[in-house]
Structures are given as C-alpha cells and as structure tokens.
Design brief:
This protein has 285 residues and is of the alpha/beta class. Helix 1 links the parallel strand 1 (5-9) and strand 2. It has helices at 14-25, 37-46, 64-77, 104-125, 158-179, 206-216, 225-237, 259-262, 264-278, and strands at residues 5-9, 29-34, 53-58, 83-86, 130-135, 185-190, 247-250, 253-255. The chain has 9 helices and 8 strands. It has one domain: NAD(P)-binding Rossmann-like Domain (Rossmann fold), CATH 3.40.50. An 8-stranded mixed sheet has the order 3-2-1-4-5-6-7-8, sandwiched between helices. The longest helix has 22 residues, at 104-125. Helices cover 43% and strands 14% of the residues.
C-alpha cells in the first residue's frame, strides 16, 4: 500500500504540532501548513528520525490567492491526499479585513478550509477512502449565523467573531458530508477541548488572554494539548471514522452540535455565501 499522505494546516504549534509528530511516527507523510518558516523548519528537523516524513509548506491562509497557490503546490507534490485536516485558526483582537475584503477571523477559520477543500478535492478523490477533518470548538454554541451581518461590520467582538467562525466550520463540515455521501470521503469535525496553553488567542483582547493564562495554572481546568491532539488523530486514523461522516466529536464521543450548526437551511445558505466570497461554483462537489 502506498504511504498515506495527510495535509495538516496549523501544524507548527499546539495540538497540530503534536498530531503531526504522532502521525509521522505511524509512518505517514504529513504535509504541515503554517505561516512561520522558522517554526516549520524546526519541526522538520526535530522529526527527521521518525518512520514517516514531516514536510513543511509555508502559506498565509488569510489570502485566497495564496490558498490557491498552496493547493497547486500540494497537487504538484503529492499524487494522493488521504486526509485533509483543517486545524489552523486565529482570533483577531480588532476587526480587520484581508486583501480579499473579508473579515480576518472568518476568512482564516472558515473560508480557507472551504476554499482549500474545493481546490484539493480531486486529489482527495483519487485516494478514496479518504477523510476531511476540521477543528471546531464548543464555543460555537454561543454564536448565531447572522446573515445580515455575517462578518461583524457593526459591533465587532473578537470572542463572538471566533465563535461564529467555528459555528461556520461545523455547518460547512455537515454540508460537505452530505454532498459527499455517495463517495468514500468522510467529513467530520471535533472540539479539542479548552486548551489553556494554546497560542490561538495571541491576538485576542488583553482580558481574554489574562483569563486564559489564569486558567492555565488552575489544576483540572481545561484540556491538555496532548488530549486535543489525540482527538484530532482519532478522526484521521480510527477505522470507524472511515465510515462515519457528518459527526461532531467531543470528549464524550460523537455529540450533537447546536441546531444553528446542523440546520440544513443555514448550511446551504452559508455554503452559497462562501462560494460567492471565494469565487467558486456553489454546486460543487
């Protein structure tokens, strides 16, 4: 059997870094996507004795042109993709827009996975059975999809913007799973737990960062990075998730997300808006 290839965004730190190392230790080729070339080079150097192979591809997922260039690079480099893992994420302190005119948190956390999946789907199809895995968050339960102001042009709040972006990722995952139900490609997402030691909120307001630092020193609060990485790795490797699709996984196993995330009308409307914002045909795949 050919060596399995896993494409993993956000793999140079936190749960992504741990998962990348563990997957490579199982003999897989792990194409890690990140913004920081130095971190990527360090990860590759530290994992060069593993049975598998960690390779780094530098990319800024905030730019749609860069996402498309990344996809072209990955298609050129790999003749198969057995798992595409969307783990990169951020929480922007202040509202800002990307070069494409999209609110930054929404662009990186939701539109980048949407577009990268679109651009790589043909390569994923060649590897069936294959998987798409998305890092979500239970914080999505405090969010709504306000289609009249999806990108917080009025009253921006960093935590609410992050929560909405994670709600969008779950809706995307469920809609993708339904659209791929006649294939051998599964699409699942998971809540990694509250990981106080993550640098996800490095750009969040000072009060948010202070709260997270305080939680990190309280025994029993939150989830370790190792536990979060294990949930990611389970969706990539566990045999049951080669058949189960359209699920949301937490520490309690397969769970129900908010009705806002699973509602078919919301999912389809968000899909069409995402297609418009990225310039793709909404009828894919």
């Amino acid at each position: 059997m050919d060596t399995q290839v896993v494409v993993l965004t956000g793999g140079t730190s936190g749960i992504g870094r741990i998962a990348a190392t563990e997957l490579a230790a199982q003999g897989m080729i792990v194409a890690v996507i990140g913004r920081d070339q130095t971190r990527g080079d360090t990860l590759v150097a530290e994992t060069n004795t593993l049975d598998g192979d960690v390779r780094f591809h530098q990319s800024d997922l905030a730019s749609q042109a860069t996402v498309r260039s990344l996809a072209a690079e990955l298609r050129e480099t790999y003749d198969r993709i057995d798992a595409l893992v969307h783990n990169a994420g951020l929480s922007s302190r202040h509202r800002s827009e990307t070069e494409d005119g999209v609110e930054l948190t929404f662009a990186v956390n939701h539109l980048a996975p949407y577009l990268l999946t679109h651009e790589l789907l043909d390569r994923i199809r060649t590897s069936e059975p294959a998987r798409v895995v998305v890092t979500a968050s239970d914080i999505h339960r405090r969010a709504t999809l306000d289609f009249d102001d999806l990108e917080f042009t009025n009253g921006y709040d960093s935590l609410q913007a992050y929560a909405r972006s994670k709600l969008a990722t779950i809706a995307f995952t469920f809609e993708l799973a339904e659209r791929l139900e006649e294939t051998e490609i599964t699409a699942n997402c998971f809540h990694p737990g509250f990981v106080p030691s993550t640098n996800l909120f490095r750009d969040a307001p000072i009060w948010t960062r202070a709260m997270i630092r305080a939680a990190a020193i309280i025994p029993g609060i939150g989830t370790t990075q190792q536990e979060g990485a294990q949930r990611l790795r389970t969706l990539v490797t566990a045999p049951e998730f080669s058949e189960q699709t359209g699920t949301y996984v937490t520490g309690d196993g397969v769970s129900s997300p908010s009705s806002e995330a699973s509602d078919p009308e919301n999912r389809e409307r968000l899909w069409d808006i995402s297609a418009d914002l990225t310039g793709v045909d909404p009828h894919w795949p």
